[in-house]
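Many groups now describe folds with learned vocabularies. In that spirit, our science desk offers one protein's residues alongside their backbone shape tokens.
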Amino acid sequence: MKDLLKAMDDLPWIVKLILCIPALDIVWAVYRIIYGVANKSVVNLVVGILCIIPGAFFVWIIDLVCVIVKKKIWIF
């Protein structure tokens, strides 16, 4: 799992930006779930699960802004 997280973190900035598009933002929700499991963080796990369906309508905007500003997605 750590290898997958590292691979996602090492993606080029433009690819991260493309993955913030509303239909593709599901990738970052799955990333949050994997991050929560790998780091034993219940908060990240719950946020990842909530980002799949109900949060998908507004979390993509937060991810987009964070990728533009910090070059990383929003995560606790």
User: Anything to note?
Assistant: Helices lie at 2-9, 13-18, 26-38, 42-52, 59-70. The radius of gyration is 11 Å. Residues 13-70 form one domain. The chain has one domain: 13-70.
